[in-house]
Amino acid sequence: MTPTPLPQTPPPIRVASTVALTEAEGPGERFAIWTQGCTLACPDCCNPHLWGAQGGEDWTAQALLERVLAARARRPSLEGVTLIGGEPFEQDAALAPLAAGLRRAGLTVMAFTGYWLEDLQARRSPLLPHVDLLVDGPYERERYTSARRFIGSTNQRLHFLSDAYRPDDPRFAEPNTAELRYDGEGEVQVVGFPFPSVRDAFGPKRKRAHR
């Protein structure tokens, strides 16, 4: 299916935060980008501070691409970029040029979305053709699981949309992980899977987290 044509001048990307190096947000070493804004508002979401569209900062796709490539220059083992939110597919026209540029540069693209793959295909999302790995489906707290890599609730699915990865890659059989980081303001940042024990211990001070 042909994606929806991009506007001649793509809108800016509203970015909540970034992490230049993580191993908790997809296979291998990755640059993670949290987008700002989400209208789905899943109950018990670990990132409710990213729902509002007013937060974050505007970035052009080119500026963000240059930032990622600078990170790879410092760390040549950087494998790809993960788009998290917020809801990346609510900014798919803005993110599509970035994702295309990342793949041209030899990086893989993983995305998390609360929408279903079939719905993204039906509306011809311009971002979808540039994604290698997709976790889809809304988070459902009644179906919480920590048993599947990169999956938060059992209704969610992991899709291999290109030949970049295979389901039998042993990294997808590894346990979920979380990374704890401290910023210059003394706040705790949780990157990776939101285990209840981590959320209970650090939630009130958490600046941002996964999914």
What characteristics describe this protein?
211 residues; TIM Barrel; 7-stranded mixed beta sheet; 9 strands; globular
Q: How would you explain this protein's 3D organization?
A:
This protein is α/β, with parallel strands linked by helices and 211 residues long. The chain has a single domain, classed as TIM Barrel. Helix content is 19%, strand content 22%. It contains 4 helices and 9 strands; from the N terminus they run βββαβαβαββββα. The strands form 2 sheets. The chain has a 7-stranded mixed sheet. Strand 8 and strand 9 form a beta hairpin. The radius of gyration is 16 Å and the shape is globular.
Quick structural gist:
19% of the residues lie in helices and 22% in strands. By secondary structure, it is an alpha/beta fold. It has one domain: TIM Barrel.
How do the helices and strands line up, and which of them pair or pack?
Layout: E1 13-22, E2 30-35, E3 57-59, H1 61-74, E4 80-84, H2 92-104, E5 108-112, H3 117-122, E6 133-136, E7 157-160, E8 178-182, E9 188-192, H4 196-202
Parallel strand pairs: 2-4, 4-5, 5-6
Antiparallel strand pairs: 1-2, 1-3, 6-7, 8-9
Helix pairs in contact: 1-2
In the sheet with the most strands, the strands line up as 3-1-2-4-5-6-7
Name the average pLDDT. Answer: 87
CATH first level: which class?
A: Alpha Beta
Q: Measured on Cα atoms, how large is the radius of gyration?
A: 16 Å
Percentage of residues assigned to helices: 10-25%
Helix/strand order, N-terminal first: EEEHEHEHEEEEH
Shape: globular
Poorly predicted segments: 204-211
| Domain module tally | 1
> In CATH terms, what is the fold-level topology?
TIM Barrel
Counted beta strands = 9
Structural class: alpha/beta
CATH architecture: Alpha-Beta Barrel
β-strand amount: 15-25%
Query: How would you characterize the largest beta sheet?
Result: 7 strands, mixed
Please report the distance between the alpha carbons of the first and last residues: 28 Å
Number of helices: 4
